[in-house]
Amino acid sequence: MNRLSTLLKHFNLHAATYHQGGFCGVENISKGSYGHVHLLRSGRLTFKDEHNQYIELTEPSLILVIRPLEHRLQATEADEAELVCATLQFDGGANNPLTLALPPYIIQPISELPGLTGSLEWLFEEAFGNECGRDVVLNRLFELMVIQLLRHLMANRSIASGMMAGLANPRLSRAITCIHDEPQRNWSVADLAGLASMSRASFAAHFRQVVGNTPADYLTNWRVSLAQKRLREGRPIALIADEVGYESPSALARTFRRKVGLSPSEWMQRKVLD
């Protein structure tokens, strides 16, 4: 059972490095359409979130702002901050199931991320070196680092609720992974409970407590998210409906409107205008 592969297949991430070196001054980052990751290699740095909360970083640290949120980085010359920064884009848009399952931002000292040590050392070596192909290597290393961070969060059960909490839960993860792998299947609560080796009632209650909604709602939300991604890719709704488990395009459109508040065509028009 691979809990992350299907998620990353559908909602893969793409990093683009835009800064490596000393940092002095203020950088105000607006919402835009990208997430961001900042790595403090040395020195001191102040991070301000969109609610004007300030966090002082005094040791090498990772800052992951997974969705396009306003934030600020600030350092004085005396802080001697060295940073490597990249933007993050996701297939399926910024607000996809993977990004929505994570906190708005994660800040952790690198010393608390032992599973990332190798890739972070390599990343810093590339960023402050002068090897050919450096930018391409840095982009891939940022992507690898984020995947390793997701592994770390699941292994340590760092997310309290939602999809990531469900995937970290030894009793629920198999059922959720099967939903992700086979959205077209007509899953019943009994089917999913069997995968979790639980009674139907216990599974339904435990699922809602950990993930935050019912198994049926989770399945529907996953199907609609996949439909949105395929619409972005230009696929016809008739093919999408079959791929995500609906007997007809009209059945998918009704569910889509109920969940999103717009028909698939209206939603696509809104995305073009955005």
Overview of this protein structure:
By secondary structure, the chain is an alpha+beta fold. The protein is built from 12 helices and 9 strands. It has helices at 5-10, 97-100, 117-127, 134-155, 163-168, 173-181, 189-195, 200-211, 215-232, 237-243, 249-260, 264-273; strands at residues 13-23, 25-29, 35-42, 45-48, 54-57, 61-65, 71-75, 81-90, 105-109. Strands 1-8-3-6-9 form a 5-stranded antiparallel β-sheet, covered by helices on one side. Strands 2-7-4-5 form a 4-stranded antiparallel β-sheet, with no helix packed on it. It starts with a helix and ends with a helix. The mean pLDDT is 94.
End-to-end separation: 37 Å
Tell me the strand order in the biggest sheet: 1-8-3-6-9
CATH architecture tag of the largest domain: Sandwich
Oligomer: single chain
Class derived from helix and strand content: alpha+beta
Tally of alpha and pi helices: 12
Radius of gyration: 21 Å
Give the integer mean of the pLDDT values: 94
Which CATH C-level class of the largest domain is it? Mainly Beta
- One letter per element, helices H and strands E, the order comes to HEEEEEEEEHEHHHHHHHHHH
Describe the protein's topology.
Elements: H1 5-10, E1 13-23, E2 25-29, E3 35-42, E4 45-48, E5 54-57, E6 61-65, E7 71-75, E8 81-90, H2 97-100, E9 105-109, H3 117-127, H4 134-155, H5 163-168, H6 173-181, H7 189-195, H8 200-211, H9 215-232, H10 237-243, H11 249-260, H12 264-273
Antiparallel strand pairs: 1-8, 2-7, 3-6, 3-8, 4-5, 4-7, 6-9
Helix pairs in contact: 3-4, 7-8, 9-11
What is the gist of this entry?
It is built from 12 helices and 9 strands. It has 274 residues and is α+β, with helices and mostly antiparallel strands.
